[in-house]
Specification:
Oligomer: single chain
Number of strands: 8
Distance between the termini: 17 Å
Shape: globular
CATH architecture: 3-Layer(aba) Sandwich
CATH class: Alpha Beta
Strand content: 25-35%
Length: 191
Amino acid sequence: MILDTNTAARERLIAELRTHALVIGDVVLTSGRTARYLVDAKRAILRPPGFRALAELVAAQARSWGATAVGGMTMGADPIACAALAGGADVKAFFVRKETKQHGLSRRIEGPELDPGERCMLVEDVVTTGGSTIRALDALRAESQDVCGVLAVCDRLAGGARAIEAAAGVPFVALTTIDDVYPDRPDRAVP
C-alpha cells in the first residue's frame, strides 16, 4: 500500500530520491542478492528538502496509526524515526541494534525506555525482501512491544511488503516504490 495523504510532500520526496538516492550500477543488496541499481535513501533523506518531506509524511502516518513510538533497525530506521519527531509527532524514537549491546545497559532497543503497550510504528528506509524489518519486529516482540504498522520510505516491489505484512499482521505502507523512483528501469515488469 502507498501512503496517500500529502501529495506535495510525497512528490518532493520522490524528486529527492530520484536526484540523490538512485544509484545505477551493479550492487549487492542487504539480502545478498545482486541488483543493477540501488536506492540509497539516506543520500536523499539526510538533506534538508528530503528530510522535511519525510518528516511531514512520517509524522502524519504516526498520528494516523496512533503510534506512541517510532523506530526500527539501525541504520535504516534512524533518520526516519528522527523525522517523526521533527515532523511534530508525539512519539518516542527508538533504534534496534542487530545484537544486544554487551556493555553499558546491555540493551538491544536504544532510546527512551518503551513502556508496556507502546504502539510502535516500525520504519525502514528501503524494503527488498523484508528481512531487516522482520528482525526488528522480532526484537520488539521479544521485549513485549506492540507494532501498529510498518512504514518504508521505498518499496523495491520484490516481495518484502508481503513478507512483512505476513510476519507482523499489521498494515505495511510505502511512501514510494521503485516504480516512482526509477520508472524506466530495465527490469520493470510491464502490466
